[in-house]
Write a sequence for this structure.
């Protein structure tokens, strides 16, 4: 890469272009290509080729132990349509993603609004709220697993105020809620910071004008603040949704998809099928489904931006 | 703001920060408890035991695993900064044929969870003889899907850069590459900072990839090692696991607290504002 | 921008080094065998490497490496390696994965790679044979027993009085008087239900029929056994409930059901303990063991060398050494005296009751082809049972509905 940089660098030290062939346009063209070359090559080798291979695998039945790799056409896709578990898996994924987006974004916004009051000492709180972001994901999840045990820290804390806590990771409803909440506390700091930056970009005069018109705080928030920070809301929601569909370590450490299959989200099911049940062909089919869902959601969110984003940037 | 409103805000902040702070507190204090006391409801251990902190290093080559995670994350961060700032600049400021379509092509990397491509990647790296080495954990993040977010952040930043600065540089006789290095990059420090943070944390947290690619204990990374603190028959050693988790978290937390202003403000200025 | 240049240089050097790594040296005749295991225990690893070093002394061209993979993902990790074309030469195989490995044709027959095959107890090879050929050597046959903390249970019922009712009664009493937990089925944790087999076998219950085709969860013996277990958990509080962590070996519980090889965890135990056989149940006395085999992979690069090393690794002398941690299948070594020599923590009478009688008469934990998926399906379907007031027969009928299609697949 050093050579790349110095090669395109060379003309810079020579006098301004007089060369008939190396016009500014042509040189820009070459520089542009050279600049994106590493990223493009990486995308082809580490993203597109593997994706095509996954598509190819999904048309095969692949038994690793018996060393057989047989073309079966659409059989895996038919199996997908008839898989009695897939409905529950998709429901769990939808529940997790929706729950995470709602909980995460509302908490992030609440924290950002509180911190935006510019009181003394808010920097300390900002650091505290952000700190889990830099704690290793697995370490964070392991700690929460301990605390969510029936005889763990959370229920001890609740018992101290006279409440009998549920068996968080062992009952259907609370297990999913627990995974969502653990994930929210881990990463809400990122969205909070982005919201805080957006809030600080809202001109003070607008608030003052609204106040003198006698608008309540809630009206000001809804009519002025929210529309002005809507691009950030869109961006954070896209990042959060796409991220939520890739949740793996948290499920693996906290619930292993249980109880029942209540927290078996698509990525975890894919991992089970491909790596635990050794159904690599079917696992590849599930991979294609996951890719299709992520793609569809992203396109959808991007389309919707005109509807609820106040100003396009 | 009225006195009452202020007190309310402080009260709300104090209550809200409990779930953010308590886990770290609990992790560190419990790591000093004997294994049998882990589930006792004490905020402070009855007697401090340094044994678990010592066991971390005897049960696994933990120092080595720490070094592995650290050097991989640093290398990935450095590499990604180079790759992403170049690509981001080109996509934002240089005009070349196929630019838009190529940007969309690169963006597909954002949409593909690593679980989707892990099997073919495994086969490719195995064909190259690189299984049970750190190369998959270094090369894929720098050039593959994980660096796309970094490229996106850099592009968003460079788009907001006023064009006049570059015009001036070009009039001074700087070429594209020179403008990039001498003008655009120095201005991009906040965005680069954000990219560095994102990338470092991503690499530091990788879990599925090390599980799949690595099988030798001395090559393990930290997240993988954390789940492996068990006795000879795979019974969990909770206090040792928590000691290791504390050691994983505390240095990064300290660096973060010292540099938090750059950290957070860098992130806020990424052009992710919309 | 010096930083950027340094970074660029690092990336460049990195890629070059990566290319250089690809070409490995191929000097004539030297063979490196790789055996995957799930034990990273220092003492175990030292024993293995000592045996490998002795072999290397006799066969200087062969080096053996041991690749310890985490046990909870062991089969997954090995299969992933095979899928990626990185097949180990020899692999430990868990009993749950045995039918998959044995029936798939992934292993080579070992009848000519085992010393004195007539010494091997027939009960230990049932799982590892197909069409009369031995496909893996059962190097570890570890019976289940009950470890008892005698500080917490001073008056342990013995002889004919050692029944499941008596065991649960004692566990309940100890839990109440000590404030600790009663009986812990180790490694069950409301997930790996196969570790309940040492309990439900007392009722003669089976997860599925011997031919593997018919679900056994809805049959009367299993309903009775599970009803008993459910009562012990939720009515008697003699077994810790779901989400309650308790470790017998740390002194948290009065008793635990586990494999006898766990005795080494009690080396520095701060309490007095003993090991007894599984309590008797409606079906009388019985025994259950877990197993591990070593197989030679057909896809490995050095099949003949691997077979020869296996012959050495499992010969009489080395089998006796391995017996310190892994109860051997060779009948001449299954005497209280020889076992006591390698298991100083256990008394000869413990060893006779639990190990020797266990191995000669016991049945192995449930296993099946495609067992990962079936075990997972059972686990999900059993989850509704782990709460107070659950309708046990209905849940068990649900288990059969969930797994019957998988059993016949």
């Amino acid at each position: 890469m050093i050579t790349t940089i110095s090669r395109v660098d060379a003309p810079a030290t020579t006098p301004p272009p007089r060369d008939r062939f190396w016009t500014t346009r042509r040189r820009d063209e070459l520089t542009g290509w050279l600049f994106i070359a590493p990223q493009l090559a990486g995308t082809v080798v580490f993203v597109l080729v593997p994706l095509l291979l996954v598509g190819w695998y999904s048309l095969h039945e692949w038994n690793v132990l018996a060393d057989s790799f047989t073309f079966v056409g659409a059989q895996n896709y038919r199996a997908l349509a008839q898989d009695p578990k897939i409905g529950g898996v998709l429901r769990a994924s939808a529940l997790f993603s929706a729950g995470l987006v709602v909980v995460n974004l509302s908490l992030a916004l609440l924290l950002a609004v509180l911190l935006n009051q510019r009181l003394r000492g808010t920097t300390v709180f900002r650091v505290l709220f952000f700190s889990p972001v830099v704690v290793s994901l697995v370490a964070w999840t392991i700690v929460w697993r301990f605390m969510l045990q029936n005889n763990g820290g959370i229920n001890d804390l609740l018992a101290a105020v006279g409440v009998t806590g549920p068996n968080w990771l062992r009952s259907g409803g609370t297990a999913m809620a627990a995974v969502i909440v653990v994930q929210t506390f881990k990463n809400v700091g990122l969205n909070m910071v982005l919201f805080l930056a957006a809030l600080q970009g809202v001109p003070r005069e607008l608030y003052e004008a609204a106040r003198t018109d006698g608008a309540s705080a809630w009206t000001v928030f809804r009519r002025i603040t929210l529309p002005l920070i809507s691009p950030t809301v869109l961006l954070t929601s896209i990042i959060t949704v796409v991220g939520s569909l890739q949740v793996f370590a948290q499920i693996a450490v906290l619930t292993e998809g249980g109880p029942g299959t209540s927290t078996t989200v698509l990525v975890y099911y894919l991992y089970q099928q491909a790596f635990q049940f050794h159904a690599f062909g079917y696992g590849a089919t599930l991979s294609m489904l996951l890719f299709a869902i992520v793609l569809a959601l992203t396109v959808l969110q991007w389309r919707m931006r005109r509807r609820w984003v106040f100003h396009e940037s | 703001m009225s006195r009452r409103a202020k007190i309310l805000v402080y009260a709300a902040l104090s209550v809200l920060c409990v779930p953010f702070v308590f886990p770290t507190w609990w992790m560190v204090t419990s790591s000093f408890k004997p294994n049998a006391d882990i589930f006792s409801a004490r905020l402070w251990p009855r007697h401090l035991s340094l044994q678990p902190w010592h066991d971390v290093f005897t049960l696994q080559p933990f120092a080595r695993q720490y070094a592995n995670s650290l050097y991989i994350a640093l290398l990935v961060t450095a590499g990604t900064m180079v790759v992403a700032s170049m690509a981001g600049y080109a996509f934002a400021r240089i005009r070349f044929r196929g630019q838009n379509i190529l940007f969309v092509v690169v963006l597909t990397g954002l949409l593909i969870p690593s679980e989707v491509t892990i099997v073919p990647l495994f086969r490719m790296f195995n064909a190259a003889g690189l299984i049970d080495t750190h190369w998959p954990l270094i090369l894929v993040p720098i050039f593959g899907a994980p660096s796309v977010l970094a490229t996106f952040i850099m592009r968003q930043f460079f788009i907001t850069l006023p064009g006049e600065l570059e015009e001036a540089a070009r009039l001074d006789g700087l070429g594209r590459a020179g403008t990039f290095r001498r003008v655009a990059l120095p201005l991009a420090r906040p965005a680069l900072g954000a990219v560095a943070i994102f990338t470092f944390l991503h690499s530091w947290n990788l879990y599925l990839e090390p599980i799949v690619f690595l099988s030798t204990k001395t090559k393990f990374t930290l997240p993988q090692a954390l789940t492996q603190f068990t006795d000879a028959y795979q019974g969990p050693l909770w206090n040792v696991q928590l000691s290791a988790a504390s050691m994983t978290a505390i240095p990064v937390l300290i660096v973060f607290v010292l540099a938090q202003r750059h950290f957070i403000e860098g992130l806020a200025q990424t052009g992710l504002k919309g | 921008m010096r930083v950027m240049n340094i970074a660029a240089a690092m990336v460049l050097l990195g890629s070059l080094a990566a290319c250089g790594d690809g070409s490995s040296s191929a000097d004539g005749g030297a063979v490196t065998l790789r055996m995957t295991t799930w034990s990273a225990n220092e003492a175990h690893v030292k024993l293995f490497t000592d045996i490998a070093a002795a072999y290397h002394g006799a066969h200087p061209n062969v080096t053996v490496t041991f690749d310890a993979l985490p046990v909870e993902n062991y089969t997954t990790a090995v299969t992933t390696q095979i899928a990626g074309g990185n097949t180990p030469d020899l692999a430990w195989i868990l009993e749950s994965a045995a039918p998959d490995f044995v029936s798939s044709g992934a292993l080579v027959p070992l009848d000519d790679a085992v010393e004195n095959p007539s010494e091997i107890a027939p009960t230990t090879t049932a799982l590892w044979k197909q069409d009369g050929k031995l496909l893996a050597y059962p190097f570890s046959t570890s019976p289940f027993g009950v470890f008892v903390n005698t500080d917490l249970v001073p008056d342990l019922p013995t002889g004919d009085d050692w029944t499941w009712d008596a065991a649960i009664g004692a566990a309940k009493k100890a839990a109440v008087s000590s404030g600790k937990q009663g009986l812990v089925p180790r490694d069950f944790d409301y997930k790996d239900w196969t570790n309940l087999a040492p309990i439900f076998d007392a009722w003669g219950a089976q997860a599925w029929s011997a031919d593997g085709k018919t679900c056994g969860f809805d049959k009367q013996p299993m309903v009775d056994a599970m009803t008993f277990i459910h009562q012990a958990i939720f009515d008697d509080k003699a077994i810790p409930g779901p989400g309650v962590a308790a470790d017998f070996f740390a002194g948290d519980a009065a008793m635990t059901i586990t494999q006898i090889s766990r005795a080494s965890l009690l080396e520095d135990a701060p309490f007095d303990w003993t090991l007894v056989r599984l309590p008797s149940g409606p079906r009388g006395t019985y025994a259950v063991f877990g197993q591990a085999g070593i197989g030679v992979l057909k896809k490995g690069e050095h099949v003949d060398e691997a077979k020869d090393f296996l012959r050495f690794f499992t010969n009489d002398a080395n089998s006796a050494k391995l017996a310190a941690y892994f109860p051997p299948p060779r009948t001449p070594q299954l005497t209280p005296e020889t076992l006591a020599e390698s298991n100083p923590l256990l008394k000869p009478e413990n060893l006779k009751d639990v190990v020797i009688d266990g191995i000669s008469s016991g049945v192995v934990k449930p296993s099946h082809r495609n067992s990962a998926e079936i075990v997972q399906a059972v686990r999900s379907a059993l989850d509704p049972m782990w709460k107070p007031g659950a309708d046990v027969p209905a849940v068990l009928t649900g288990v059969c509905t969930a797994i019957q299609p998988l059993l016949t697949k």
